[in-house]
Protein 1
Amino acid sequence: MVGQLELYTDSTIHKKIPQTQYLGSKQKLVKWIIEYLPPCDSIFDAFSGSGAVSYAFKKIGKRVICNDFLKSSYYYVHAFIENSAVRLSEKEILSLLTPNQKKDDYIEKHFTDVFYTREECRFLDNLYVNIQNLVEPYKQSLALASAVRTCIQKMPGGKFRSGLLRYRKPDFPHFRPKFTADIKNTFLKFLTGYNQAVFDNGQINEADNDDIFNILPRIKVDAVYFDPPYGGSGFDYERDYFFVELFTSYYGQIKAFNGKTKTYPIFKESGFNKKTQLHASFLKLFESASHIPIWLISYNNRSIPSYNEFIDLIKKFKPKINHYEKNYAYKVGNNNALKEYLFVCT
Ligand SMILES: C[S@@+](CC[C@H](N)C(=O)[O-])C[C@H]1O[C@@H](n2cnc3c(N)ncnc32)[C@H](O)[C@@H]1O
């Protein structure tokens, strides 16, 4: 029988998505994760983020359901996991760049010299209105995913924090040419990448945008992959990605922003941010997944709850746990002696 890893590296399925730069992305770990996936036909990627792991599952022929509570992340998986055939034509791509009289100045007005230059903000305002004209939902998602990825590419560390324009001065120690690269070319690069990543794996795959605690009880699959926010990592996905959430979910609607960072009140509660919530959230998560036979869980040695507490929580529902570990440095954050874990639970 052909193993999962052989299927993944099969040169006939050479499809790939552009580099993700997502906080906590497992793009560089997918081969390692796939290697330990027990035989199964269907899998739920419960915290899909950039979609990199869902994409690997799709490549090895699984029926994939994926979910993320952020709208800006949902567009990735709607565009290249659920979508098996729809691509943007060259004409449609050009139509996205055409100046549109109906463009608003929402981004320009609120974010000029905050994250982007006036010209870049104008480009985003124009892009937004052109995307609304696409109508076909997968085409819209391909364009929105590319817009989101473009916005993130220009941010140092890929997060929306204050005082970021100074990074764009070539003499700044952390300067990177991608911060000042032409926004149109960056967008076209990602759009071409996502367009080419669309393929059919012969399954009906599904992308969802829901809170994990709402969706999990109704999901019927052989296996689930959990890559939750790592408690204690300092990532707060809704805050860190607030600008792309604004762009994709609340364009034109929010008019009042806080201070220099221009954040706004956070609407969604992750359940995995506050240290005091983590134990209860994982217990609820595992309880809600008790009907799914196989669990694959990513974790690391700095996360809260601690390793032993975490294993005890899993053991309440799954008697057999295989543990794999790897030294792994994420691009962002303090990576000293960081170990990545993968738990395979049945
Ligand atoms: C570690 S990241 C996943 C990274 C992903 N595996 C990848 O390779 O890109 C965790 C994800 O969980 C999502 N998330 C956090 N709380 C959630 C919740 N309550 N329901 C659904 N998704 C949630 C975040 O938006 C984030 O994308």
Protein 2
Amino acid sequence: MNLFPFGMPVPKEEIIDREDFLRTIKSRLLMGQNLVLAGPRRIDKTSIVLEL
Ligand SMILES: Nc1ncnc2c1ncn2[C@@H]1O[C@H](COP(=O)(O)OP(=O)(O)OP(=O)(O)O)[C@@H](O)[C@H]1O
Ligand SMILES: [Mg+2]
């Protein structure tokens, strides 16, 4: 069993150092604003979308 799967989206409790960013984009989405999430490979885009 691999306790440290590599490369998959991570669950919200394992997303490091994105508290401010998540708060900001959550509040913008709640205001009805659309957004595009762009960034380099493996920067946690999918993890953030799944958490949202
Ligand atoms: N902020 C973070 N906190 C924890 N892990 C992170 C973070 N950013 C990247 N990772 C690591 O990156 C891996 C890939 O995360 P994720 O799939 O969400 O990224 P992605 O930007 O969607 O990648 P891809 O460009 O391949 O689609 C995770 O398994 C994790 O190991
Ligand atoms: Mg992805």
